[in-house]
Amino acid sequence: MADQLISTAEHESLPESYVRSETQRPRLDEVVADAHIPVVDLADPDRAAVIAQIGEACRTHGFFQVLNHGVPVELMLATLAVAYEFFRLPAEEKAKLYSDDPAKKIRLSTSFNVRKETVHNWRDYLRLHCHPLEQYVPDWPTNPPSFREIVSTYCREVRELGFRLYAAISESLGLEEDCIKKALGEQEQHMAVNFYPKCPAPELTYGLPAHTDPNALTILLMDQQVAGLQVLKEGRWIAVNPQPNALVINIGDQLQALSNGRYKSVWHRAVVNSDRARMSVASFLCPCNDVRIGPAAKLISEDSPAVYRDYTYAEYYKKFWSRNLDQEHCLELFRT
Questions:
Q1: Residue 219: how many CB atoms within 10 A of its CB?
Q2: DSSP H helical segments within 88-178, as ranges?
């Protein structure tokens, strides 16, 4: 099955199974290249201003970039470098980790859900569960030799950043600082190390089609040299160009539910490139599986009734994986 990986060979032409129908193609010439992207400097001593900026970005865009976030730049660069090294390993080495079972906690796979989808996406990815680290790291790749140490250190830093952002997002909604962290329970943490090889026909396919993230918060480490992330804003796709040393923060479906729809889980997609391969490392903070999630009580009133019913994250995640990635927003299935 590992022969399905696209990172094990050069491709002169795009295989038919990756070609989108005319109406589903990315229309790259219509993408807005120079749109305003919210950037928040977390080192700003005016905390009220930082909270206000984060709240505004969550309301208007559903995502923002952060600078001076506390994750060491050398660690970010080392994480991307060791990820590239991993995908350059020989095919037989990578084959040991290959699986198309979405339930597996550590797996190397391709596209999104090859068991279900009819058209594939131009992406290979390594999926890792990351919390608690001592439980999962023993099953992580042993090659490259520095992989476990670098990536586990990065995971710890990103988790701390995520919790700091939860506090600011909580406060921006007028909630107690620890409200979101408490509401989501003992959180899981997953990672997708995404590799998008050079693509012979980027206008015909996607790295990943339009989707929202099913988790609470996503922290994305982007390749500094090659753009590919695009987000939907007022009906138009806008390019998110890499900002030096920044991390991209995506609001996921669970924060949209907790905020009673005030903050939007952003529709985003990954496009591919004919000249260069691209790497990204997405870290997902996920609610505890059995915690009940719904709009925060303080955000519900007669004038602002609950938009979503309560549910467990296990129920939500199962529903998310039973669908195609680019179907209607999964949260729509949980409306009151």
A1: 24
A2: 91-95, 133-136, 147-172
CB-CB contact of 47 with 164 (8 Å): no
Gap between the Cα atoms of 28 and 216, Å rounded: 29
Nearest Cα neighbor of 116 from 333, 328, 320, 329 is 320
User: Quick one: pLDDT band at residue 323, thresholds 50, 70, 90?
Assistant: confident
Contact predicate 220/278, CB 8 Å: no
3-class SS of residue 291:
coil
pLDDT greater than 80 at residue 39: yes
Contact status, residue 109 vs residue 127, Cβ threshold 8 Å: yes
CA dihedral 117, 321, 143, 98 (to 10 degrees): -40
Cβ–Cβ < 8 Å for 130, 136:
yes
Asked whether the whole model's pTM tops 0.90, one would answer yes
Whose CA is closest to 90, among 192, 207, 9? 9
Sequence-distant (6+) residues with CB within 8 A of 203 are 25, 26, 27, 28
Q: What is the DSSP letter of 308?
A: B
